[in-house]
Amino acid sequence: MAAVVVIPDLEVADHLVADDPQPEREVRVPTGPVAVTDVTYATIPGYRPLHLDLYRDPAAQGPLPLVVFVHAGGYVVANPRAGGSLLNLPAVLANLAQRGYVVASIEYRLSGEAAFPAQLHDLQNAIRFLRVNAQRFGIDAARVATWGMSAGAQLAALDAVSCNAPIAGAPTGPDLGGESACVRGFVGWFGPYDLNAQMLNAANSSHIRKLFRCDGACSPATLAAASPIEQVHAGAPPMLLIHGTDDRLALPSQSRAFEQRLRAAGVPAELLLIPAVGHGFIGVTPAVTRDALRQALGATFEFFDRVCGDTRALPSDAR
Question: pLDDT tens-digit profile of 284-297?
Answer without folding.
Answer: 999 999 999 999 99
